[in-house]
Prior knowledge:
Two copies of one chain form a homodimer.
Chain A: H1 4-15, E1 19-23, H2 35-49, E2 55-58, H3 61-64, H4 67-88, E3 95-100, H5 104-117, E4 122-125, H6 131-134, E5 144-150, H7 157-160, E6 163-164, E7 185-186, H8 187-198, E8 204-208, H9 213-222, E9 228-229, H10 240-247, E10 255-259, H11 261-264, H12 269-286
Parallel strand pairs in A: 1-2, 1-10, 3-4, 4-5, 5-8, 8-9, 9-10
Antiparallel strand pairs in A: 6-7
Amino acid sequence: MESFFALLEQRVAESASLLCVGLDPHVSDLPAPTAEAALDFCLNLVRKTAPYAAAFKPNAAFFEQFGAPGWAALQTVIQAVREQSNRLGSFIPVILDAKRGDIASTAEAYAQSAFETLGAHCITLNPYLGRDSVEPFLRRPENGVFLLCKTSNTGAGDLQDLLVDGEQWTADGPARTTNQRPTVIPLYEHVARLAQTWNLRNNVGLVVGATQPEALARVRTAVPEMWFLAPGIGAQGGDLETALRAGLRPDGQGMLLPISRGISRAEKPELAAAQFRDAILDIRRKT
Amino acid sequence: MESFFALLEQRVAESASLLCVGLDPHVSDLPAPTAEAALDFCLNLVRKTAPYAAAFKPNAAFFEQFGAPGWAALQTVIQAVREQSNRLGSFIPVILDAKRGDIASTAEAYAQSAFETLGAHCITLNPYLGRDSVEPFLRRPENGVFLLCKTSNTGAGDLQDLLVDGEQWTADGPARTTNQRPTVIPLYEHVARLAQTWNLRNNVGLVVGATQPEALARVRTAVPEMWFLAPGIGAQGGDLETALRAGLRPDGQGMLLPISRGISRAEKPELAAAQFRDAILDIRRKT
């Protein structure tokens, strides 16, 4: 079985796209605050933008807020992407943006929920609980994860920017034996380096916000091969060209750009998606 | 309106209990792998153990794995706790163990989902995204959060034990100006200290595993007043008396002990819950 990122790269080649269409049915964008309206909103987006999408990314929160009917809608949306894949003759992965993270049997249940019950192909996860909380999601190479590394929000630095040198606390206290200044890196870079060591089946990527190009460049240097999911273009103010120059691999791949409101609020979402796809392609050719 | 922890302390007084009954419908514990079986499992536990429970803690993963019907079951379980509160004339809080964590409007949607759609009173959250990802959950003092601080799993140390001194990365690199060894603490302690500064409405607590009494004692020293949710007693091997001695406040409160399989797998769950409640009470009286 091919790995998740091999499958994604095939789709990137077939669609000439690094665009990841975000499916975020914000209540304020719906004609009514119902699961049915959220479903219609997403099905319309999926149908119109599929030819330009390297992947789709539904955000679990906007479905969960409608309770059980919202959860059913999410399942239907993922099924609709599968139908578009069949129609286009090209597999389009679904990345469930859920930012889960739990231990042992609970992580198993979340993996079951994402990959079996819902039928998503990849999920975003929070790394705070460590390796064993991620492993249940990595067993099948065709399923992938994007681990939160450096997020695009203002409070991201509260933990993610803290300086670490990789040394861990022990019951006897810190083990540092000299007063020499060790090599320090921000926690998010440490997470990236850890994630690289967990990526044994080519199915671990990183979420690195497009709003901080310096961080993108730092993480790219630290882990030259890994795939990034880089939110923050458009509504959150990130600049597309700056982000791509900072985060692309030399092969012009390795980076998915999720866009939500920039497409869903456009008069013609299919046109907006095509334009984003083409703008990214132009920059890749120049870079 | 009273704060979440004021409401919890009232329930602790009325039930003489620090026991938090976990509602984890593991498939392996159900007669059939269905949402209906999960619902029956939980309703039975709620009915039998309510008099001994300071709080209930359903884990979202074990409901999500059944899709929309699982989500409906979770809503019904929370409603059943409300009915027991009415029957007993004492408000029993529901802590949704969901370990969510997302930004801005997405965090708002998760707060809506937990507190409005599901009707839970408190939620577990992951702190990796920083203060602004937590704030949407804190606006109403009667709703609370427990932030993951030090978890009970084997990989917890991968990030949580990393040494930090509170200094953050800047675009100019690390700002340390001397070679002197700064005061370093494990990341989980830094999270506890940060969380204390976020606790402006008496509705922020911490998840600190009962499996590492040294960590419990460290966090208790760092934040003398905060409430802990301390999983790991029983199935995960934590010792009750050691954990209580390490984590209780001098007033004999400040710590909820979640027990799941130790109660649900007992021949008589009501007896097991009563015994846990009384064992905790004995230790509180001696400590």
